[in-house]
Amino acid sequence: MTMLAITGGRVLRPDLTVTSADVLIDQDAGEIREIGTDLAGAADETLEAAESLVTPGFVNGHCHVAMTLLRGYADDKPLEAWLQEDIWPAEGELTAADVRAGAELGLVELIKSGTTAFADMYFHVPDVAVAVEEAGLRARLGHGIVTVGKDGEAAREDATTSLEIAREYDGAADGRISTAFMPHSLTTVGSEYLAEFVPEAREAGVPVHYHANETVDEVAPIVDEHGQRPLEYAAEHGLLEPEDFVAHGVHVDESEIDLLAAAGTGVIHCPASNMKLASGMAPVERMLEAGVTVGLGTDGAASNNDLSMLDEARDAAMLGKLAADDASAVPAEAVVDMLTRGSADAIGLESGRLEAGAPADLAVIDLEQPHLTPRHDLVSHLAYAAAAADVRHTVCDGQVLMRDREVLTLDEAGVRERAVETAASLSARVE
Ligand SMILES: CSC[C@H]1O[C@@H](n2cnc3c(O)ncnc32)[C@H](O)[C@@H]1O
Ligand SMILES: [Zn+2]
């Protein structure tokens, strides 16, 4: 048994209290063995955490990690125009090698900002999976299906790919990779494909993940065509099960909030993307009051434009207050819970809490920074003041992915170089 101890830190516990303690990790099991005092003696290796906050690794509940290649490629447009005029034409040129290069860049960014698990919808998923395996992160991956604008054969092929990928990769990378069936959204996938393939996803035992109620323009066609709110339509198509999770949930009415709460379906709130694309303000406080499981996600780096979950936490608190017109709405504790346990629960992972027996997924935040001084309340600092650059160490599944700000599993300089070349070649092909 190989043991790792994280020593001398302030540890954020599941009840959001903070205590001075060591964390002892069984690296073979990838689990936290004990949280207590003087545990360094039991360890083969230590990570120093003095003057630092030891927190559960952040869980990014909705991402398109390879879209780092399109960061800054098209900004300042609303969702539909952005996708149709810029993003989809560029993505049409992406090769598997491009996606691998973009995914590696995104994974470096995730590790450096303390994220240890994420859910990802994209194309060329086998290449994303290889990158995740080498990076050492935990991920729920899926192939995103779009059937609009395709003939029947191509549409079925896309849905079949999503199902096959979900079946084949579930449990990959020693269990660090899990999967989901991923229709892109309720307006971009025809109901006949949902009717045919969702029961197969259930049979395969994988959840379903999709964009829902992101913009007003996405709600209106479903109401017009089917006479139903989008999430009523989703429930009727078997897409609102406890293991399922939707991205965005901006334009949800009270009846849909009740549906989500009753179904146990998670919502991944993506505040930065919603602000940048001017999609709207999700009623996060209302969803939390109703008992909906709410997590946080960055969405892709082309609509954010980074993958820092600490930025997302701050944005969620700020936007939540604005949306509720109430400064006490979406307080620091709620945000930290969404950043960790909420996202993990929504996407069906056990991580997001530091306690004996839990997965050893954690981040260590350097508190010796002017913007984290004084230390009245470390939960407040995590929600409002900490930044990606404050992350010192990142550990996932008991393995050290970053030590003293040096990423150990990927060659950061090489990854950046490949991403620069790949993005330049992509731009040249699209023009
Ligand atoms: C079919 S793979 C995933 C697909 O989703 C696109 N995408 C990125 N951000 C968003 C968003 O905010 N709403 C809807 N779709 C989005 C991405 O570019 C891929 O094409
Ligand atoms: Zn998205």
Architecture blueprint of SSEs:
Blueprint: E1 3-12, E2 18-26, E3 31-36, E4 45-48, E5 52-56, E6 58-63, H1 79-91, H2 96-112, E7 115-122, H3 125-135, E8 138-145, H4 152-169, E9 177-179, E10 182-183, H5 191-204, E11 209-212, H6 216-226, H7 230-236, E12 245-248, H8 254-263, E13 266-269, H9 271-276, H10 284-290, E14 294-296, H11 309-324, H12 332-347, E15 362-366, H13 378-385, E16 391-396, E17 399-403, E18 406-407, H14 412-430
Parallel strand pairs: 1-4, 1-5, 6-7, 7-8, 8-9, 8-10, 11-12, 12-13, 13-14
Antiparallel strand pairs: 1-2, 2-3, 5-15, 15-16, 16-17, 17-18
Helix pairs in contact: 2-3, 2-14, 4-5, 11-12, 11-13, 12-13
The ligand CSC[C@H]1O[C@@H](n2cnc3c(O)ncnc32)[C@H](O)[C@@H]1O is lined by residues 64, 79, 87, 91, 121-123, 144, 146, 184, 211, 214, 273, 299-300, 303.
- Quantity of strands, as a count: 18
Q: Any low-confidence stretches, pLDDT <50, length ≥5?
A: none
Q: Sheet with the most strands?
A: 9 strands, mixed
User: Which fold name corresponds to the CATH topology of the largest domain?
Assistant: TIM Barrel
By CATH reckoning, the class of the largest domain would read Alpha Beta
Catalytic activity: S-methyl-5'-thioadenosine + H2O + H(+) = S-methyl-5'-thioinosine + NH4(+); S-adenosyl-L-homocysteine + H2O + H(+) = S-inosyl-L-homocysteine + NH4(+)
Enzyme class: hydrolase
Cofactor: Zn(2+)
Domain Amidohydrolase-related: 53-400
